[in-house]
Write a structure and sequence with these properties.
Blueprint (H helix, E strand, L loop, with lengths): L6 E10 L2 E11 L5 E4 L6 H8 L7 E6 L2 E2 L5 H7 L1 E4 L11 H13 L8 H17 L15 H13 L5 E5 L7 H15 L3 E6 L2 H5 L4 E6 L2 E6 L1 H5 L2 H7 L4
Parallel strand pairs: 3-8, 3-9, 6-7, 7-8
Antiparallel strand pairs: 1-2, 1-4, 4-5, 9-10
The structure holds adenosine-5'-triphosphate and magnesium ion.
Length: 248
């Protein structure tokens, strides 16, 4: 490996009661390398995603971000350190406009308790929100209620909100879940652009989708690390073929 990993899971295990959802997973993610964690339903992808993004604690093992042990830190500490995430399930404020949603995300970054802000700050906030909406291709939907946006646009809005803290690492759980083919293409394009600016790690169920997009694939199956390699290595891996047989 060239350069220090941006994120590292060391012997991570996770139990739900007696059920072991993750078994001794060790992976080092390289900075700037668009990587997908794939695997069939129930493989442990979301569980692993939640552990490396601070959503749930691991039962054993460590998570390191830029060499620093972040195991057990609170979710807001992850954001402060430069890690942002978007979820498998869309997570926007449906009664607020696109622009308001992004402003909320920006304000959560800048201040928690400050109610009155100087006017210049407010102007900056509006401009920053506009820039983020433009970044994800939602300028035209700026004033629409988030709940009225198409599903794909809501997911893009969620990405804009995740970008509000200018993360060095962006974690995305099934960013194209439930999307039409056109929406999927738009999102894949956005992911590719974002990965040129920061490290992006995806969790994805659809193997074909990430084959052409990512540089590296990590395959989980029954909570275990089944394979780790380039798309070509994964495509020709006999174990992976067996696990994915008959799936899309
Ligand atoms: N909170 C929980 N309590 C109990 N079991 C859980 C919990 N979360 C996940 N599991 C179990 O852990 C296993 C892995 O689930 P996980 O959601 O991580 O899979 P996944 O790979 O993300 O699947 P999908 O492709 O369906 O999103 C499954 O068997 C699931 O039932
Ligand atoms: Mg999942």
């Amino acid at each position: 490996m060239t350069g220090a990993p941006i994120l590292e899971a060391k012997a991570v295990s996770r139990y739900f009661g007696k059920f072991q959802a993750l078994n001794n997973i060790s992976v080092a993610f390289r900075p700037g390398e668009l990587t997908a964690i794939i695997g069939p339903n129930g493989a442990g992808k979301s569980t692993f995603f939640n552990v490396i993004s601070g959503g749930i604690p691991s039962s054993a093992g460590q998570v390191l971000f830029e060499g620093r042990d972040i195991t057990g830190l609170a979710p807001h500490d992850f954001a402060r350190l430069g890690i942002a995430k978007s979820f498998q399930i869309t997570n926007v404020f449906k009664q607020l406009s696109g622009h308001e949603n992004v402003r909320v995300a920006l304000q959560m970054r800048t201040t928690r308790f400050q109610i009155l802000r100087p006017r210049e700050d407010y102007v900056t906030l509006i401009e920053q929100a506009d820039a983020l909406l433009e970044r994800v291709g939602l300028t035209d939907s700026r004033n629409k209620l988030a709940g009225d946006l198409a599903h794909g646009q809501q997911r893009s809005l969620e990405v804009a909100m995740a970008l509000a803290c200018d993360p060095r690492l962006l974690l995305m759980d099934e960013p194209t879940a439930g999307m039409s083919p056109q929406e999927t293409t738009v999102m894949m394009d956005l992911i590719l652009q974002l990965s040129a600016e920061r490290t992006v790690i995806l969790v994805e169920h659809k193997m074909k989708m990430v084959m052409g997009l990512c540089k590296r694939l990590i395959v989980l199956h029954h909570g275990e690390l089944l394979a780790d390699g380039s798309p070509e290595e994964i495509r020709t891996n006999a174990e992976v073929k067996r696990v994915y047989l008959g799936q899309n």
